[in-house]
Amino acid sequence: MRRLSGKRVAILATDGFEQSELFTPMEALRDEGAMVEIVAPHEGTIQGVEHMDKGKAVAVDTLLDNVIPANYDAIVLPGGAHNPDALRIDERATSFVRSFFEDKKPVAAICHAPWVLINAGVARGRTLTSWPTIRQDLRNAGAEVVDEAVVVDNLLVTSRGPKDLPAFCEKMIAVIAKPRFEASTS
């Protein structure tokens, strides 16, 4: 049996997401049996990037205005510089992310995505990692920042960037797969 059968996972993103940081976790989650939905601020498709070049687009499954946090078991936040920069100033997005912390559900964020955690008010007191250019922002928000491939702080999984995707996906799946009671007490 696949470890995430019956789990429903939101991937919150908008235009400018780093394509490997959306597609690789999405495929890993689906390979483990999770139902994955792309949640975005606008309908249609969102455009990815591959570093600085235009990348693949992905279809939006659920509009951020219509999302119901209780319908999801976990959330994944891909990076890219523009994607989290746009999401962190969208109150709908930060409220959606904050709800996972309030409900003690897994959150996985990679690269620049921890920017969203700052504006959601959930970075303070957490140990995490990120892309090097936003680490000072995280420290200023009260987080302890380390330079490791992947960091697990209770139900929060963070990673530095594309080269760390294998470790990120492995830890993300392990945290999401934990039974809810076990995950909320670890």
Concise structural overview:
The protein has 186 residues and is of the alpha/beta class. It contains seven helices and twelve strands. The chain has helices spanning 19-31, 82-87, 91-102, 114-119, 135-140, 165-177, 180-185; strands spanning 8-12, 17-18, 35-40, 45-50, 53-59, 62-63, 74-77, 107-110, 127-128, 144-145, 150-153, 156-159.
Description of the structure:
The protein is of the alpha/beta class and 186 residues long. The chain has one domain: Rossmann fold, CATH 3.40.50. Helices cover 33% and strands 26% of the residues. It is built from seven helices and twelve strands. It has helices at 19-31, 82-87, 91-102, 114-119, 135-140, 165-177, 180-185, and strands at residues 8-12, 17-18, 35-40, 45-50, 53-59, 62-63, 74-77, 107-110, 127-128, 144-145, 150-153, 156-159. The chain is globular, with a radius of gyration of 15 Å. It starts with 7 loop residues before the first strand and ends with a helix.
What attributes characterize this protein structure?
single chain; about 190 residues; alpha/beta; Rossmann fold; seven-stranded mixed sheet; three-stranded mixed sheet; 7 helices; about 25% strand; globular
